[in-house]
């Protein structure tokens, strides 16, 4: 006790023991909701860094009167601060240290009991309430203008929370701690918009406020109206795959353009002269409300960052609504999701516009973009666009190979349809998994795609089993046939689609590891080796299996069915078959030709280019290893390189087909034993020759990508859409050039007398997210 400074403490021992005397039966009365042991576990108590009860607050913080009139400069300062705090919240912060740190927000939310009339700035806990002149401009600025603005902002925070709860990850994308306060959930936006418009009218007609400051307030209020309108895009029905009037959409989202104009105007204002009232923003809510987090400093972005963030939000929403309105076919849909949505998401991408897109893409009724397309119909279109167009497995009327009584045939068909529908339902789940992952942050996308490998591998087993069962037991399905085919094997179109989807997911998981920086340099070597292997498997599958399946359909329409028609005698059966084939020739044959051309000219070539590029990088690592600039076979005391390989390859290890290459196969592929037999000069000469071969690979890859860009640019919008896909291939071309220049540089260094001790390997940022810059750097002595 002698060490304590008793001046800082209040002696309550007398009062305490007096209170104890009133306790009957020596029992402490406690709430059943309260655990006495919580106190013993609460290590934060008394710790200034952890205990919110010890947050230092001034007298102004305690007694801040939110009902007090404020002049126009301070109201502008508060509004500007709130908007900056909203964007701060989106930038990896939390509500208690951003928007909710405003005393006006706290008071309004604490007063709210379900009615808009509750949302006042009257702080009933203050001991004295002064009588203010309610007719003054300053009073109306607070209780009309500021009140309506905060109502709108709080409502938009509530909308943001709704988006976050449905599509984003807690703390990873957005922190949703709200102190158990209701952000006007039950109040329709229309009522709040009405109040905002009333404030705008008052400012313009009756306020008498200086013109420039009035314009700032009106711009902010109008911007808030546009923000509240953002959720309206969820009601827009996009007529995808239809040639409707595409210009209508701009009228429906005009509010986004108006919002961008508001942001542009506000970004030109110098807000430094608009000071905040003392106590209007503080840690009071962390101290006062139901706070389950440790004390934290308030966080407010700069005006420049704030307006950039808002601009990005409005622009990204506007762009994806406009772009989604241009989708005319499945290829457009795939390219849009891949190049214009998924690949564009980075750490700077606005979390709300990203989360909103997921709700915009897949609506509550499971429709795609509010169109007539559903996940079910979209899944069927994706399958048809790959290998299932006019597949007999989807046409029960053609299952004439089932023999027996009518009852047996009908029962068998019903059983088959039950199994088929269950499989299609499972495939639909896999497609939904793919669609719902595109708007996640890139790290989360990779995690979800890793799960997708297991999903699609399981689906492949199921689909293959069913198709083989139907073929072997009932002869149902498509067989490989044609003028050059002597086989009588099932083509397995459904399994082919599933397998191809799985391969692409596997490839994407491997590639995205470079973007997320999870590979060490020696691991990059085997990952590019594995990517080269996967791209070869995919390209060959397209060239062989997919082409055979689609050629089968073409042959059937152009040759097989016409032959059958000729053999049939005149009658209803012949007439019906003739009419059916006319439809096939008019509709399905052009579709098959487009699919075939798209695959040959674009898809297969794209995989070939990727294979050459990744193979070139793989060989570059081997040569750098041979030059002893780096080691792709480092040794470890606690483990082996093979175990690290198996651990890194775990996402693909459960897949049966294609088999994951063993470490021994990789070890064999990087062997440089042939160089060890050579003299030093011969070794360097051989390395130079191999480096020249690597340059050829990069140049060949570049040529492929340049031809792809030409195909895209020459296309009239029938097969390709958007700028994202062109940017993607241009960055790959730059990557090829970058690697070629670096390899040339290494050759020059070898010619100039290369010493391994003078150089070290460096990995830097490249032109493409999947291909970092790899170069050797002179070591500074």
Automatic annotation (TrEMBL):
> Which keywords does this Swiss-Prot/TrEMBL entry list?
Cytoplasm
Q: Which InterPro entries does this UniProt record tie to the protein?
A: NAA35-like_N, Naa35_N, TPR_NAA35
NAA35-like TPR repeats domain spans which residues? 328-772
Q: Which domain of life is it from?
A: Eukaryota
| Cellular component annotations (GO), alphabetically ordered | NatC complex
Q: Where in the cell is it found?
A: Cytoplasm
Q: Which Pfam families match?
A: Mak10 (PF04112), TPR_NAA35 (PF25789)
The record places domain NAA35-like N-terminal at 26-193
Family per similarity comment: Belongs to the MAK10 family.
The UniProt entry, under PANTHER family, shows:
GLUCOSE REPRESSIBLE PROTEIN MAK10, N-ALPHA-ACETYLTRANSFERASE 35, NATC AUXILIARY SUBUNIT
Name of the protein this chain belongs to: N-alpha-acetyltransferase, 35 NatC auxiliary subunit
Taxonomic lineage of this organism?
Eukaryota, Fungi, Dikarya, Ascomycota, Saccharomycotina
């Amino acid at each position: 006790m002698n060490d304590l400074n008793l001046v800082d403490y209040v002696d309550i021992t007398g009062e305490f023991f007096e209170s104890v005397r009133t306790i009957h039966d020596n029992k402490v009365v406690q709430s059943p909701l309260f655990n006495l042991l919580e106190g013993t576990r609460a290590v934060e108590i008394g710790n200034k860094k952890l205990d919110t009860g010890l947050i230092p607050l001034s007298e102004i913080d305690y007694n801040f009167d939110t009902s007090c009139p404020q002049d126009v400069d301070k109201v502008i300062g508060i509004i500007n601060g709130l908007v900056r705090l909203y964007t701060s919240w989106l930038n990896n912060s939390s509500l208690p240290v951003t928007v909710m740190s405003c005393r006006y927000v706290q008071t309004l939310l604490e007063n709210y009991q379900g009615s808009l009339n509750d949302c006042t700035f009257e702080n009933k806990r203050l001991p004295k309430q002064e009588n203010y002149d309610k007719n003054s401009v300053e009073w109306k600025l607070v209780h009309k203008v500021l009140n309506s603005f905060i109502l709108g902002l709080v409502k938009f925070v509530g909308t943001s929370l709704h988006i976050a709860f449905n599509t984003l990850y807690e703390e990873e994308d957005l922190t949703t701690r709200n102190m158990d306060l209701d952000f006007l959930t039950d109040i329709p936006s229309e009522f709040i918009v009405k109040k905002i418009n009333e404030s705008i009218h008052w400012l313009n007609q009756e306020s008498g406020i200086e013109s420039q400051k009035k314009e700032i307030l009106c711009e902010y209020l109008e911007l808030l109206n546009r923000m509240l309108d953002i959720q309206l895009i969820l009601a827009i029905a996009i007529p995808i795959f239809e040639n409707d009037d595409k210009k209508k959409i701009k009228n429906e989202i005009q509010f986004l353009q108006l919002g961008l104009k508001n942001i542009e105007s506000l970004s030109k204002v110098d807000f430094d002269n608009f000071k905040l009232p003392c106590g209007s923003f503080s840690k009071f809510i962390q101290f006062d409300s139901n706070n389950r987090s440790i004390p934290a400093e308030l966080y407010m972005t700069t005006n420049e960052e704030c307006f950039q963030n808002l601009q990005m939000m409005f622009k990204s929403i506007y762009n994806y609504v406009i772009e989604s309105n241009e989708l005319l076919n499945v290829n457009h849909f795939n390219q849009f999701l891949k190049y214009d949505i998924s690949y564009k998401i980075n750490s700077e991408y606005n979390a709300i516009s990203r989360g909103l897109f997921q709700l915009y893409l897949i609506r509550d009724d499971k429709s795609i973009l509010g169109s007539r397309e559903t996940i079910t119909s979209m899944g069927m279109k994706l399958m048809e666009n790959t290998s299932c167009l006019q597949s007999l497995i989807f046409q029960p009327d053609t299952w004439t190979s089932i023999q027996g009584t009518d009852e047996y045939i009908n029962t068998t068909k019903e059983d088959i349809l039950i199994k088929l529908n269950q499989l299609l339902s499972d495939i639909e789940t896999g497609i939904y998994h793919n669609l719902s992952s595109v708007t996640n942050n890139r790290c989360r996308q990779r995690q979800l795609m890793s799960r997708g490998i297991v999903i699609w591998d399981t689906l492949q087993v199921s689909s293959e089993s069913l198709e083989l069962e139907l073929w072997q037991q009932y002869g149902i399905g498509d067989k490989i046939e044609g003028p050059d085919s002597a086989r009588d094997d099932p083509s397995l179109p459904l399994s082919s689609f599933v397998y191809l989807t799985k391969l692409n997911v596997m490839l994407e998981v491997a590639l995205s590891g470079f973007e997320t920086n999870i590979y060490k340099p020696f691991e990059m070597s085997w990952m590019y080796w594995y990517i080269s292997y996967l791209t070869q498997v995919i390209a060959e599958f397209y060239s062989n299996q997919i082409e055979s399946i689609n050629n089968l359909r073409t042959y059937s329409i152009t040759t097989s069915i016409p032959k059958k028609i000729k053999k049939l005698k005149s009658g209803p059966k012949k007439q019906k078959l003739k009419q059916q084939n006319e439809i096939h020739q008019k509709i399905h044959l052009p579709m098959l030709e487009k699919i075939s051309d798209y695959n040959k000219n674009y898809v297969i070539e794209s995989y070939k280019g990727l294979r050459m590029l990744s193979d070139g990088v793989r060989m570059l690592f081997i040569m750098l290893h041979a030059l002893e600039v780096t080691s792709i076979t480092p040794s470890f005391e606690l483990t082996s390189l093979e175990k690290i390989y198996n651990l890194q390859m775990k996402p693909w290890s459960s897949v049966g087909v294609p088999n994951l290459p063993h470490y021994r196969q990789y070890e064999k592929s990087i062997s440089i034993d042939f160089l060890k037999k050579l003299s030093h000069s011969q070794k360097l000469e051989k390395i130079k020759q191999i480096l020249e071969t690597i340059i050829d690979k990069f140049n060949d890859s570049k040529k492929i990508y340049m031809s792809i860009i030409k195909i895209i640019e020459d296309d009239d919008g029938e097969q390709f859409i958007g700028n994202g896909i062109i940017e993607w291939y241009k960055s790959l071309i730059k990557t090829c050039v970058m690697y070629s220049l670096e390899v040339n540089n290494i050759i020059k260094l070898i010619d100039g007398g290369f010493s391994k001790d003078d150089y070290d390997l460096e990995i830097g940022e490249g032109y493409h997210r999947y291909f970092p810059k790899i170069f050797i750097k002179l070591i500074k002595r």
